[in-house]
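Aim 2 progress update. The chain analyzed this quarter is reproduced below.
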Amino acid sequence: MRFKALAATFTVGLVLALSACGGSSDDDASGGQPSATTTAASDAMSSRTGTFEGLNGKKVMGTVSVDGDQVVLSGFSSDEGPDLHVWLTNGTAESDVTAGTEVDAVKFDQASQTFTLSGVDAAKFDTVVIHCDKAKAVFGAAPLA
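Predicted structure tokens:
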């Protein structure tokens, strides 16, 4: 996953560097708009989705989309817990949660929820976890693709 992100970053950087060598804006056939390659590479890096799966005998369902500075849950439901939170992690073990970034508290029975990320580079994480902070238990996770 990191290799793909690095390759995409390199590609975007290369496209931007080469387009900077293109001359005056009068010669620019795109009218000042980003090229399709640049836009597609940026979108691929900023928008990732996943489907939740319950873990540790808990039920968690729905989908998640991480797009820029937002985490959006759709069709979401979870077993009830005393202190459920959404986390960005790189795995589903308790140590992965501890090393990850807490997004916010989540409502177990609200199908659509949106969270805004502040100062978090979501590209560094490959999993969205539903975690009961009080019980230190992972309820479910969605790998991001």
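The chain has a mean pLDDT of 79. The chain has two domains: 2-45, 47-143. These observations will guide the mutagenesis experiments scheduled for the next reporting period.
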